[in-house]
Amino acid sequence: MAEALVSIALEQLASFIHQQATEGISLLVGAKQEVEKLQSNFRAIQAVLADAEIRQVKENAVRDWLDKLKDVSYDIDDVLDELNTKFLKLQIKRAEHASKPLKKVCSVVLHYLVGKPLLMRCKIVINIKYLGRKLDIVVEERERFHFRPIAEGSKEVERQITTSAIDLEEVRGRDNDKNSLVDLLLSQSSQQQVLPIISIVGMGGIGKTTLARLAFNDDKVNTHFDKKIWVCVSEPFNELRVAKAILESLTSSPSQLVELETVMQKIGRQIERKKFLLVLDDVWTENYENWENLKRTLKCGSLESRILVTTRKEIVANVIGTTKIISLGVLSEDECWSLFSQLAIFEATNKEFEEIGKKIVKKCKGLPLAVKTLGSLLHFKRKFEEWENVLNSEIWELEVVEERIFPPLLFSYYDLSSILKKCFSYCAIFPKDYVIWKDELIKLWMAQGYLKSKANKDMELVGEEYFENLAMRSLFQDFKRSEYDGSIIGCKMHDIVHDLVQFLSKNECFAIEVESGASPQSDISYERVRHLYARSSSSIPRSILNPKKLHSFVVERAYFYETDLSRYFEQLTCLRTLNLCNCYGFYKIPKGIKYLVHLRYLKLNWNDDIETLPEVLCDLYNLQTLDVTDCGKLRKLPQGIGKLVNLRHLLIGGTRSLRYIPKGVERLSCLKTLNKFVINGDYDDGNKACTSLDSLKNLKLGPSLELELVNVRDSNALKLANFQSTNNLLHLTLSFRIQCKERRGNEENVMIIEALQPPPNLEKLRIEYFEGKSMSFDWMIDGKYKKSG
Hints:
With 789 residues, the chain is an alpha/beta fold. The chain is built from 26 helices and 20 strands.
């Protein structure tokens, strides 16, 4: 991770020097030398970071040194990003005044070159010198570790196997275990007096969750039980969270309840006299009292119900009252070899590779996850020496964190390039068993500066390649696929992989779930946390926030007072990512959001009370993603939205109250996604609202767009779209909204929709609320579009 941070810092330093030369703004005496010294120090450190990354696993002193390096790297990135933002603001101001008299233009430029900017430059130079001294200390401390230069991990992965092949569930040697488990789940006893609890016990990575999933999805099990529930328990155990997860699975809807007793009562009513299967995956707690309320509630169901538990500890199985333990053993060497050879896919006739491959498999000690990870890694290694290096590596000698499973995972981690290490490590921000949506993850990576456009590829495509790279190495699993085209849209991480990523990013990325009245974990150094995920049934404790350091603040379902939000915005000034998803307690976004000058990603979806967004939001010139999906009461977007020159994704689907799109959206030349556009025939003020599709004709949008037509009376509003040149648009929804009392005739409606000329690559067309009788238009070719009305 430190490697990527150093790379980002070096990029910022180069950008700083370039901007200074481009804008002709000179800093104070000695500043350039300070910047060049920072560059020199970072390059010297960069050369030995690969060795430091390896040694941190077994040397705490090295780990502490890397923490200090990361702190300085983050701080330098903040200082330089602030300055680059000032340069961007200057460019925008110049562009705004380009059409004004020269005298006014000069006064604007002079204001930014003298006045406050001079004070700003003094402040930044002071910060650079201070951080330079901190980096000097880190460089001096480096000497005592005697690091050696090591070549960085692979830059690219050969894309020789499809992602779908990686997604196949690779299972070996578990047929008997599965059949036995299914028999236990379906068995009945006339003398049964207690609810049976079956526990699968085994070491991490041995396949407990895989076995449970095989049984959970078995056809006979599906037809036998009335209800099936899957809950990932993990650590730390939280009784209310587990109960709410069970309730949400039963009702298929989120719960805002905060009282445990109320949740238990609702669970009882849902399962009363029903046969249910409850899977509690990855259980750790040894406290018997944690289970009492839950077990009492579950007795409401039929005695033919079953509870299935997976755990690494037999004592846990005994504490929760297990009636049958399945001790899961390791795979045989033949089964491991079968799995490994399928994934590694080397020349079967090459005896040298087969011989060394079997030696590597033997070191995996029969653990399926270890075999799968190394098989996926060695698929991309075609030289005998590379396989030999894996076999003889000192990584096998490490005794770290998780019994015999981390060394194989570390091989895959160390083989990554520095930026892929950072992308992978960032996933520690998500809790265990979290569904990671691919598009959202790519936007989060982009917000942190991990993705750069290259070789005529947009950042989003680079992110796609990074995601596929990690998936091919078996670092992601449980893929979610699109119902439309089968492409991967989401995934999870194996709990052991999640343990690894948490170990590597300890005190840097952190996920916490806080229930009402509970105290945060005391073993976490919150002042060093840079990326935080928090989920709470109440408010977020201020003690877990690092006001001046946090780069990511991802919140789900928490309660915020508007005064609290204002205070957060004034303090969390380094944020790149802010996600306030499905939160409640506030009705507007405070104007203090203007302080988040570094912000790239703002997600406010499912906040149904927000009606407007503050105009100052348009001063966040770095913003790349604005997501207000399903904010049902949102009536309008800020008028100055055209100033968001770096905006790439404007997600406004499900905003049923949105009245119009402001003028200026046509200036968003970076825009890649605009999933909804509104033309309102009642808005005639061209200075306020977009009144035709002309605003979209120069934007390269895709892949989906909802076009909402509100009281549109003039077909000319559609004729200017030039949709036929929009090759990226694949799915189009036409939604007619009639908000006036007058009824239009069928002929007028047909004329309006006839004016539209869809793009040539359109694959799916949906027409909603159309009042006309005719559904056959000149531009429709039979069988080309999927139509629904």
